[in-house]
Design a protein that fits this description.
303 residues, 16 strands, 4-stranded antiparallel sheet, 5-stranded mixed sheet, 22% strand, globular, alpha+beta
Length: 303
């Protein structure tokens, strides 16, 4: 055993992470002739890169893009190219959104069980709700709100079209080539969908123990009175947040101008992401009642 100062250990890990990120950006990036691009996310059992141009057709996976985005590997330029590639190669509205991969046109037994399924079934090119929802989360996290909304809205809208999806209310594991929802009890997508809605779309999350309101709501997500609301739990308290958008503006045109708690104005710290509320203020509230936050969104100052 050896003793290593935690600061040195942290610095060493950061340097290793930076090296890995740079390596992936340079060595695993695929540039497409149409000015789009994506990352190679896999190697098969023969040690060959899976994604990119191939004699049987172009190969791309959604998974290979989600984690470089979520892990902040992709540069802004790469991110925009990845979105273009996904829209061109993976998006299929007839099956609820973004397929898990393009058609590899072979039973690729040296890449696991997925490619033993017919294309469009399960992990071989279906619209796999779990990964698609993680894609939405990563897009919101990167500031591509409209692109993230497209992912969530397409899944939701398709699930609601019972004549095609044949679904009870909910999100399935995947949609098959007919657009039918399959295995509603075998999916982690519901939890990821809720996580994305709470922490990214409504922008309610903790920051070093305090409460942040950082809504990324589009105008169409507000009701006729210009409000959008959500229930949540924070610091052990049952809460409801009501975002008021009287001018019916998109997320990038507004900022929190005032915050009320149970009808009373409360102080907040204006930060780049939104409005930060002290945890101590919330933790000290009575625990036998629900608490209502009202966040008024005002036009953001420009220039």
């Amino acid at each position: 055993q050896v003793r290593i100062p935690s600061e040195e250990l942290a610095l060493d890990l950061e340097r290793k992470a930076d090296w890995i990120a740079a390596h992936l950006r340079q060595r695993e990036w695929i540039e497409n002739p149409d000015s789009s691009g994506w990352f190679n996310g896999y190697y098969d059992d023969n040690g060959l890169a899976v994604e990119g141009q191939h004699p049987s057709g172009v190969r791309m996976t959604l998974t290979g893009q989600v984690f470089p985005i979520m892990g902040k590997i992709a540069t802004r330029e790469q991110l925009e190219k990845m979105v273009r590639a996904a829209d061109t190669l993976l998006f299929d509205e007839t099956v609820g959104g973004y397929r898990l991969n393009t058609d590899f046109r072979e039973v690729k037994q040296n890449l696991g069980r997925a490619f033993g399924f017919a294309y469009g079934t399960k992990e071989n090119g279906a619209m796999f709700s779990h990964m698609a929802t993680m894609y939405a989360y990563s897009l919101y996290q990167s500031g591509l709100v409209r692109e993230g909304f497209k992912v969530l809205d397409t899944i939701f809208s398709h699930s609601q079209r019972f004549a095609v999806s044949r679904m009870y209310p909910g999100i399935p594991e995947y949609f098959d080539n007919r657009g039918r929802g399959m295995y509603p009890y075998l999916t982690g997508s519901a939890s990821w969908y809720l996580l994305t809605m709470v922490t990214q779309v409504f922008g309610i999350r903790g920051v070093m123990g305090d409460l942040l309101f950082s809504p990324r709501l589009l105008e169409r997500q507000f009701d006729a009175s210009g409000q959008a609301s959500i229930n949540f739990v924070f610091a052990g308290q049952q809460c409801k947040a009501v975002f008021e958008n009287p001018d019916r503006l998109d997320f990038d045109q507004v900022c929190p101008g005032a915050v009320r708690l149970n009808g009373q104005d409360i102080p907040f710290q204006s930060v780049e992401e939104g409005a930060l509320i002290s945890r101590a203020l919330i933790a000290g509230l009575p625990g036998d009642q629900d608490h209502r936050f009202e966040i008024k969104l005002l036009p953001a100052k420009t220039g």
